[in-house]
Every structure is written in C-alpha cells, then in structure tokens.
TrEMBL record:
This is Adenosine deaminase. It comes from Triparma strigata. The lineage of its organism: Eukaryota, Sar, Stramenopiles, Ochrophyta, Bolidophyceae. It catalyses: N(6)-methyl-AMP + H2O + H(+) = IMP + methylamine. It holds the Pfam family A_deaminase. GO terms for molecular function: adenosine deaminase activity; metal ion binding. Residues 91-384 form the Adenosine deaminase domain. It comes from the Eukaryota. Keywords: Hydrolase, Membrane, Metal-binding, Nucleotide metabolism, Purine salvage, Transmembrane, Transmembrane helix, Zinc. One of its GO terms (biological process) is nucleotide metabolic process. SUPFAM superfamilies: Metallo-dependent hydrolases. InterPro entries: A/AMP_deam_AS (IPR006650), A_deaminase_dom (IPR001365), Ado/ade_deaminase (IPR006330), Metal_Hydrolase (IPR032466). Its cofactor is Zn(2+).
Length: 427
C-alpha cells in the first residue's frame, strides 16, 4: 500500500469520524426532544438502545481501521528508513565472480560485436542453468579490451552500491592474442587504474580454480597467483578460490595444489556444499580454508565444526536460494536457508555477498536488504553484519586493514548516532 493511499484513507476516516460525532450531537438533540414526547412509551427505549449501539459500533469500527492504517504507515516508514540505512552503509563484498557480474546489456553488446547471437536468460535460474550461462559470457569476453570494460563496469557497480572494499574473483583464461597470465595482469592493471580515481572502493583479486577443469590447469593458475603475489609491487592479489560446477571434479584432487597456494602465503576460500555431498564437506573442513563459499547443504555437526574453527561463511542469498531450487523471496530466505538462519541465530562468522550479480540481477544493497527484511533485523543488527565482515577480509596489509575497519566502523557509529538522535530506536 502506498503512503499516499494510506494518507487518503486516514483523511477519509477522520472525515467520517467527524460526521459521526456531528450526527451523534444532532441525534442527541432530536432524541432529547422526542424523549420528552415519548417518555412513557417503551418503544422509545428500544429505539434509543439500537441507535446508541449502531453509533458506538460504527465509531469503534472506524477507530480500529484508523489504527490499522496508522500502523501500516509506520511500518512502511520504518522499512523505508532501514532500506535507506542499508544503502548508505559502507559495505564489503567478499564473494563476487568477475564475469558473473557482467551486465546483461554489456553481454549482448559484446556478443553482437563478435557477430554472436544474443543471450536470453532463462525465466528461472537454477544451479544447472547458471552453468549453461557462463559459456555465453565467456564467448563475449574475447579480448583484453572486453575484459577491461567488464572489470571497470564491475567496479563501478560495486562503488555505486557504496562498497568500499571488494574481493573479486576470476578464473584466468587465454584471450585473443593474450595468455592466462596477461588476463590477470589486465584485471590487476584495471584495479590499479581504478585506485588512482576518487572512488573509495578498494578492489582486491582472488584467482579462481575451476574444479571442472583438469588439476593441471589449477597448477597453472596457482603458479600465476604465486608469481604475482610475491612480486614486490603486489597490492591487490590476496587469495585463491576453488569453484566451478560442483557436480564435476572432486575436492580431494585439488588438495595438493591448494596446499601449495596456502604455503605460499595466499588465503584460500573454497566453494562448499552447493550440492549434497557430506563426505566432500568433511574433506574441505579438514583442510580448514580461510573462508567457505555458500556452505549450503552442511549438517548441524558440520556447521558447528565451521563455527568452532572460526571459518567465516560467504552467504550469497539470491544465488543460494536459486541453487537450492527455491524462490528468491523473504519467506524462503527465512525458512529454507538453514545456513543463514544458523549463522544469525548462533552468531557464527558470516558475510553477505552477491556471487554473480549480473547473472542473478542483484547488487550488494539488495542482498543485505533481503537479509534484513527476512530476519527483521533492525539498523543495529544490519550494521553488526557489516561490522563483523571487516575481520574476514583477505587483505594482508595491516595498515590497509586498519583504515578499512576505521572507515566502515566510524560510518556505522555516525549513522547509528544520527538515528538515536532522531529517536529511531524502535524496532
Ligand atoms: C552459482 N555459484 C557458483 N558456484 C561455483 N562456481 C561459480 C559460481 N558462480 C560462478 N562460478 C565460477 O565462476 C566462473 C565465472 O566467473 P569468472 O569467469 O571466473 O570471472 C564460472 O565459470 C564458474 O567457474
């Protein structure tokens, strides 16, 4: 219901109440006069009783309706305030696939420029259909120029959502006239160029390993990562991710290469539990990655293991619901996303991210807001989620981490103070 409809409704009820009050006064006068004439007649008392009941019940009815509308108006105002609060927070994005963030308009523009047919998204995305979209996306990004454009657009979209620190992950691919290593250099040079501008967003890179590809490719990717990570000029490369189609490959085959990456100082995040595979979840937990991606189909014991080992979970609400074959609405998020519910209820360490914002047509504000709406988190608790995310970043530089923590937390404190001053402490 829109605010103007509610206001019109309230105005209407006020008018009716005034009329009823006026009518009551008139009726009293009439009744008074009639009473004088009919004072001895029993019919008069019956009439008087019926009229008073009618007047009383209609006044009560409109009074209740007015209260209900007032409540709806307050609820709407509260929601709008929380939404605005979520938008204004400085945010952190920890799980975002670079080419999965490609805007649909850019995808079709690039496909056209390569004389390829346009991509039409399926009416409902599932884990399976999501993996059929990536070949289209990859065929659109053919050159380093295409890659640069996609990278800058990804950064611009995150910055627009008030994200001030983002770890973006991507799988190196050889493009036209360029190698896998040049793919990574292109992304890193876009990040450096971006950092020279006046945006507050600090971009960081995680190199992805695709589990559906041979392990030899994983070694190639990790070799590139270690080389760039150890370069004295490195500022942006922070970690390695194991992802890709979860129905293909197995974690255990990638264990040696991930161990190599870890011993080289890179942080590791692993996609985990996107499909039911309890023994693989155990293997991943034994490895103790620095963060877990999604972690959807875990048992209670596995969840507790992750929590007790303080491994933060990267929750991506819209993507997760679609992966689980559910509708991406508040009710499903609250009742069917067991991992998120447990994270909120048990104060486990977790983050809220977008996964593939282009593919899932979402953004960081929407994802955070969806959690707030589903679990009825007030501004203090929304801010708490972002506050905790500061401790989960892979950024290795202590000073940068301290600046980031200060920026995010000072902003939160200021925003909450303003809210308190405005008297906005009600839930
Ligand atoms: C739905 N959840 C998901 N689960 C697992 N892997 C995913 C994923 N979403 C994306 N990717 C991985 O990221 C690649 C696209 O980005 P880049 O070309 O690397 O930037 C996909 O090919 C897939 O390997």
């Amino acid at each position: 219901m829109s605010l103007s409809t509610i206001n019109t409704g309230l105005g209407f009820i006020n008018t009716i109440n005034a009329h009823i009050a006026l009518a009551s006064t008139k009726w009293c006068t009439i009744l008074h006069k009639t009473a004088a004439k009919l004072v001895h007649k029993r019919r008069f008392f019956f009439l008087l009783g019926s009229l008073s009941t009618l007047l009383l019940s209609s006044t009560l009815f409109f009074h209740n309706l007015k209260n209900k509308l007032l409540l709806t108006r307050n609820k709407k105002a509260l929601r709008d305030r929380r939404k605005a609060f979520t938008r204004s927070l400085y945010k952190i994005e920890l799980h975002c696939h670079l080419t999965g963030s490609l805007r649909l308009s850019t995808l079709n523009e690039l496909l056209k420029s390569h004389n390829l047919p346009p991509y039409t998204p399926p009416p409902t995305l599932t884990l399976k259909s999501c993996f059929t979209a990536f070949p289209h996306i990859h065929s659109a990004i053919k050159t380093v120029q295409n890659l640069s454009r996609v990278t800058f657009e990804c950064l611009a979209d995150l910055s627009y959502a008030n994200v001030i620190y983002a770890e973006i992950r991507t799988t190196p691919r050889a493009l036209l006239n360029s190698t896998k290593s040049e793919y990574i250099e292109t992304v890193l040079s876009c990040f450096s160029e971006w950092s020279l501008g006046d945006s507050k967003l600090l971009p960081r890179l995680i190199i992805s390993v695709d589990r559906s590809k041979p392990v030899s490719e994983a070694y190639e990717n990790v070799k590139i990562a270690v080389e760039k990570f150890n370069h004295p000029s490195n500022k942006c490369l922070v970690g390695i991710d194991l992802g890709g189609d979860p129905t293909k490959g197995s974690f255990i085959d990638f264990l040696p290469v991930l161990t190599l990456a870890r011993t080289s100082g890179l942080k590791i995040t692993v996609h985990c539990g996107e499909i039911i595979n309890p023994s693989e979840i155990d293997e991943i937990l034994n490895f103790r990655p620095d963060r877990l991606g999604h972690f959807l189909t875990c048992t209670d014991e596995q969840f507790e293991r992750a929590r007790d080992n303080e491994i933060p979970i990267e929750v991506c609400p819209t993507s997760n619901l679609l992966t689980l074959g559910l509708n991406s609405d508040s009710v499903s998020l609250k009742t069917r996303h067991g991992t998120l519910r447990k994270c909120i209820e048990t104060a486990a360490s977790f983050s809220i991210s977008t996964d593939d914002p282009g593919l899932f047509r979402t953004n960081p504000v929407r994802e955070l807001w969806s959690v707030s709406k589903a679990f009825e988190l007030d501004e203090w608790r929304i801010a708490g989620v972002v506050w905790d995310m500061v401790d989960q970043v892979f950024e290795g530089n202590r000073k940068t981490r301290a600046y980031l923590a200060r920026d995010v937390r000072v902003r939160i404190k200021k925003m909450l103070r303003v809210l308190e001053e405005e008297g906005g402490t009600e839930k």
